[in-house]
Amino acid sequence: CSAFIVHGDQDPRDVEFLAARAPVVSMGRIFRELPIDAAVADNAEGVHALVRHLNSLGHQKIAWVGSGIDSTFGEARQSGFIQGCLH
Predict the structure, then answer these.
(1) What are the two backbone dihedrals, phi and then psi, of residue 38, each rounded to the nearest 5 degrees?
(2) For residue 4, pLDDT beyond 80
Protein backbone atom coordinates (compact mmCIF):
# COMPACT_ATOMS: atom_id res chain seq x y z
CA CYS A 1 0.00 0.00 0.00
CA SER A 2 1.07 3.56 -0.57
CA ALA A 3 -1.17 4.82 2.27
CA PHE A 4 -3.29 3.40 5.10
CA ILE A 5 -6.56 4.62 6.57
CA VAL A 6 -7.10 3.20 10.05
CA HIS A 7 -10.11 3.11 12.34
CA GLY A 8 -9.53 5.01 15.55
CA ASP A 9 -9.95 1.91 17.71
CA GLN A 10 -6.70 0.37 16.47
CA ASP A 11 -3.91 -0.43 18.92
CA PRO A 12 -1.28 2.35 18.76
CA ARG A 13 1.46 -0.26 18.30
CA ASP A 14 -0.28 -1.54 15.16
CA VAL A 15 -0.67 2.00 13.83
CA GLU A 16 2.99 2.70 14.55
CA PHE A 17 3.90 -0.48 12.61
CA LEU A 18 1.90 0.71 9.59
CA ALA A 19 3.29 4.25 9.82
CA ALA A 20 6.81 2.88 9.49
CA ARG A 21 5.83 1.55 6.06
CA ALA A 22 3.56 4.21 4.50
CA PRO A 23 1.61 7.37 5.36
CA VAL A 24 -1.28 6.76 7.78
CA VAL A 25 -4.50 8.70 8.33
CA SER A 26 -6.52 7.84 11.43
CA MET A 27 -10.30 8.19 11.25
CA GLY A 28 -11.97 9.44 14.39
CA ARG A 29 -8.99 9.34 16.75
CA ILE A 30 -5.92 11.50 17.12
CA PHE A 31 -2.89 9.40 18.07
CA ARG A 32 -0.95 12.18 19.78
CA GLU A 33 2.00 9.87 20.44
CA LEU A 34 2.47 9.12 16.73
CA PRO A 35 3.47 11.37 13.82
CA ILE A 36 0.40 10.60 11.70
CA ASP A 37 -2.52 12.60 10.33
CA ALA A 38 -6.06 12.29 11.64
CA ALA A 39 -9.43 13.10 10.17
CA VAL A 40 -12.64 13.15 12.14
CA ALA A 41 -15.49 12.57 9.72
CA ASP A 42 -18.68 10.83 10.75
CA ASN A 43 -20.10 10.53 7.27
CA ALA A 44 -19.47 9.09 3.86
CA GLU A 45 -18.72 12.47 2.29
CA GLY A 46 -15.77 13.13 4.61
CA VAL A 47 -14.11 9.80 3.89
CA HIS A 48 -14.88 10.10 0.19
CA ALA A 49 -13.11 13.48 0.16
CA LEU A 50 -10.16 11.98 2.06
CA VAL A 51 -9.69 9.16 -0.45
CA ARG A 52 -9.99 11.53 -3.40
CA HIS A 53 -7.43 13.86 -1.81
CA LEU A 54 -4.97 11.01 -1.21
CA ASN A 55 -5.48 9.95 -4.82
CA SER A 56 -4.82 13.49 -6.04
CA LEU A 57 -1.50 13.33 -4.18
CA GLY A 58 -0.58 10.27 -6.24
CA HIS A 59 -1.60 7.48 -3.85
CA GLN A 60 -3.16 4.64 -5.83
CA LYS A 61 -3.07 1.71 -3.40
CA ILE A 62 -5.02 2.81 -0.33
CA ALA A 63 -6.17 0.31 2.28
CA TRP A 64 -9.13 0.50 4.66
CA VAL A 65 -8.00 -0.97 8.00
CA GLY A 66 -10.78 -1.60 10.51
CA SER A 67 -11.98 -4.15 12.98
CA GLY A 68 -15.42 -4.50 11.45
CA ILE A 69 -18.48 -2.35 11.04
CA ASP A 70 -20.09 -1.93 14.45
CA SER A 71 -21.99 1.33 14.02
CA THR A 72 -23.92 3.33 11.47
CA PHE A 73 -21.12 5.88 11.15
CA GLY A 74 -18.69 3.00 10.52
CA GLU A 75 -20.89 1.83 7.68
CA ALA A 76 -21.05 5.37 6.27
CA ARG A 77 -17.27 5.77 6.48
CA GLN A 78 -16.65 2.47 4.70
CA SER A 79 -19.21 3.43 2.06
CA GLY A 80 -17.39 6.73 1.52
CA PHE A 81 -14.09 4.86 1.20
CA ILE A 82 -15.53 2.56 -1.47
CA GLN A 83 -17.10 5.49 -3.34
CA GLY A 84 -13.79 7.38 -3.19
CA CYS A 85 -11.97 4.41 -4.66
CA LEU A 86 -14.48 4.10 -7.49
CA HIS A 87 -14.07 7.71 -8.63
Answers:
(1) -135, 145
(2) yes
Is residue 46's pLDDT more than 90? no
Number of residues that make up the chain = 87
| Residues contacting residue 4 through CB under 8 Å, at least 6 positions apart | 18, 19, 22, 23, 24, 25, 62, 63, 65
Q: At a CB cut-off of 8 Å and minimum separation 6, what does 85 contact?
A: 51, 62
* Paired strand residues for 39: 27
- pTM score, two decimals? 0.56
Q: CB–CB of 87/29 below 8 Å?
A: no
CB 25 within 8 A of CB 50: yes
Q: What is the DSSP string of 26-71?
A: EES---TTSS-EEE---SHHHHHHHHHHHHHTT---EEEE-S---S
